[in-house]
Amino acid sequence: MAGDTATRAAALREPHQLPARRFFRAQTLVHYSLHFLFPAVLALVLFPAMWPSAYLILLATMLIDLDHLLATPVFDPMRCSVGYHPLHSFYAIPVYALLLLPPPVNIIGVGVLFHLFTDTVDCLWTFRYCRECYLNARIRPVVDWVRKLLGRKADG
Predict the structure, then answer these.
(1) Selection from 81, 105, 82 nearest residue 93 by Cα
(2) Predicted confidence band of residue 24 (pLDDT cuts 50, 70, 90)
(3) pTM recorded for the entire structure
(4) How far apart are CA 25 and CA 145, in angstroms?
(5) Rounded CA separation 66/79 (Å)
(6) For 81-117, what is each residue's pLDDT tens digit?
(7) Do 9 and 72 meet the contact criterion of CB atoms below 8 Å apart?
(8) Concatenated DSSP letters of the chain
(9) What integer pLDDT is reported at residue 105 of this predicted model?
(10) CB within 10 Å: which end of the chain, N or C, has fewer?
(11) Using an 8 Å Cβ cutoff, are 81 and 93 in contact?
(12) Residue 79 in contact with residue 138, Cβ under 8 Å?
């Protein structure tokens, strides 16, 4: 049994194998559009008087991805970052929600929460074709809880 645990731990450290797919996928297009283009819409709608600087601040909130540098491997396209990396953790999310309250930093709160939303969309998309990714994801209990709230059977 100890050998199985060591083998599984080693497998989790290695990058997942990508399923055969086209180079330019809809998932990639949606993910990066939500990271780079949609923040312009958020800036125009939520902060119209200062939308250019709001857009730049929203883009700057992508610095939370620096926590990916702490992971091995640094980039694994099949790993769900939500709940995995420190700045994407379930402990950080309430702190980001509190940033919505004071006006000087509410743009930052919007940016990091929207960033996490975007990453969650990407995780859910990945789970559609990688069951192992879903089963190993730290966001799985949250997904199962939401499914239960919606009256759907939790995957397990």
Answers:
(1) 82
(2) low
(3) 0.82
(4) 29
(5) 15
(6) 999 999 999 999 999 999 999 998 999 999 999 999 9
(7) no
(8) -HHHHHHHHHHHHSPPPPPS--SS-HHHHHHHHHHHTHHHHHHHHH-GGGHHHHHHHHHHGGGGGGGGGGSSSS--TTS--TTTSGGGSTTHHHHHHHTTSSTTTHHHHHHHHHHHHHHHHHHHHHHHH-HHHHHH-TTHHHHHHHHHHTT-PPP-
(9) 95
(10) N
(11) no
(12) no
- Is residue 74 within 8 Å of residue 66, measured between CB atoms? no
Residue 134: burial class (beta carbons within 10 Å; 0-12, 13-18, 19+)? buried
- Residue 16: is it exposed, middle or buried by C-beta count within 10 angstroms (0-12/13-18/19+)? middle
